[in-house]
Design a protein that fits this description.
The chain has 3 helices and 14 strands. It is of the alpha+beta class. The protein has one domain. The strands form 2 sheets. The protein has an 11-stranded mixed beta sheet with strand order 10-11-12-13-1-2-5-7-8-9-14, covered by helices on one side. The protein has a 3-stranded mixed beta sheet with strand order 3-4-6. β11 and β12 form a beta hairpin. The longest helix has 18 residues. The two termini are 28 Å apart.
Length: 248
């Protein structure tokens, strides 16, 4: 069970450029482990930090957690069921908004084989991108995995183009890059941070320094949207979600 005091960077490309970087707190959890939790963290119970199954693995607020992931791997005949880790922002004092979470799926030799990128927008919708190599081999930091964009995230970007995912997961650090490419635009987003044990001390540090947690993240998203609107970036209304919850 790890705590990642990470930084995320977003850089918009095209005629109207924009970029920002801010600190964000993630947890990396093995929900099958019998590891003892710090007193200030709970699974499916209110606490200073918590992770709830209803927040992940399925529709927003109706997720079923790990069992959903195992089913997705099984019906798609994919490896990685031996160990599944959830990389996500925790609920802090009961509130959470995760723009993107990741299910990291490993084989029995601890090779990363599949990643499910769980993307949520501010309109209450969610879609998941199933990421793996074409040959289903281990995913390394030198691999790039692409997926067609089918889900509305930002009202200032169209639902077209391609995502390029890079996952560099080591015992010391998490480094994830998502590059979105489209004609005359796109963006690049990164999530980088060292892995350290989740302790009561690290939880208390986060509560002290960033007590609003993902409320702060949500407000920063809206602030960046206001900045783009003032700069007259093209605004697009939110369409319906894709019929399929998962795409490859």
């Amino acid at each position: 069970m790890d705590y990642i005091q990470a930084h995320t960077f977003h850089g918009r490309k095209g005629k109207i450029e924009n970029s920002f970087r801010y600190a964000v707190d993630y947890l990396l959890l093995d929900l099958q482990s019998n590891e003892r939790f710090p007193r200030l963290f709970s699974h499916n119970h209110f606490n200073f930090f918590s992770i709830y199954d209803v927040d992940h693995g399925g529709p927003p607020k109706n997720g079923i957690g790990l069992s959903w992931v195992k089913n997705i791997l099984k019906i798609n005949d994919l490896p990685g069921q031996e160990k599944v880790l959830l990389l996500a922002q925790p609920r802090i004092l009961g509130f959470v908004f995760n723009p993107v979470s990741f299910w990291l799926c490993f084989d029995q030799k601890d090779n990363l084989r599949v990643v499910i990128a769980e993307v949520s927008n501010t309109f209450g919708q969610r879609h998941c991108y199933l990421c793996h190599r074409d040959d289903l081999g281990p995913i390394t930091g030198s691999d790039t995995i692409n997926a067609e964009k089918v889900f509305h995230v930002s009202p200032f970007q169209p639902v077209k183009g391609t995502y390029y995912f890079n996952f560099d997961i080591s015992i010391d650090q998490i480094s994830i890059t998502i590059e979105y490419k489209r004609e005359k635009g796109g963006l690049i987003a990164t999530l980088v941070g060292p892995r350290q044990p989740l302790t009561n001390r690290s939880i208390f540090f986060t509560i002290l320094h960033r007590p609003f947690g993902s409320r702060r993240v949500l407000s920063l998203i809206h602030w960046q949207a206001v900045r783009l609107w003032l700069r007259k970036a093209t605004f697009r209304s939110c369409p319906e979600s894709p019929q399929n919850d998962v795409s490859r």
